[in-house]
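User: Here's a structure from my thesis project, written as structure tokens. My advisor, Dr. K., wants to see whether a designed sequence matches the one we expressed. Can you design one independently, without my sequence as a hint?
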């Protein structure tokens, strides 16, 4: 299970929140998340694939040239995991950082909690 949780964390960072192509992002959401998934982010709570897709797409549109980079190794414990990351222009210092924490059910992300260390300027 640890390996699957690590894979989910890294893929979510790149294939969902780091993906600019809407069709590829949606395919990743369907592959990585349960249908009843819940996203917890500072602006609020979003439930289901459509809401997650809309949020991730809108966020990506605010900074399409940013890259998401892991700042630590993914960690897993039972059915949960976490990954620290940064986001900013590729090759530069991150403009904001955070930690993703996930709860996994049936091999997919059932809940994602995004804790921001710093916010975009």
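Assistant: Designed independently from the structure alone:
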């Amino acid at each position: 299970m640890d390996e699957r949780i690590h894979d989910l964390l890294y893929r979510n960072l790149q294939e969902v929140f780091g993906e600019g192509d809407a069709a590829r992002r949606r395919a990743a959401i369907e592959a990585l998340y349960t249908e009843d998934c819940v996203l917890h982010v500072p602006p609020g709570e979003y439930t289901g694939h459509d809401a997650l897709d809309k949020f991730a797409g809108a966020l990506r549109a605010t900074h399409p040239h940013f890259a998401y980079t892991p700042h630590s190794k993914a960690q897993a414990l039972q059915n949960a995991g976490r990954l620290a990351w940064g986001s900013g222009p590729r090759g530069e210092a991150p403009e904001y950082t955070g930690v993703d924490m996930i709860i996994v059910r049936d091999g997919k992300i059932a809940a994602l909690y995004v804790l921001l260390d710093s916010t975009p300027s």
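When you compare it with your expressed construct, this may help: The first helix runs from residue 2 to 17.
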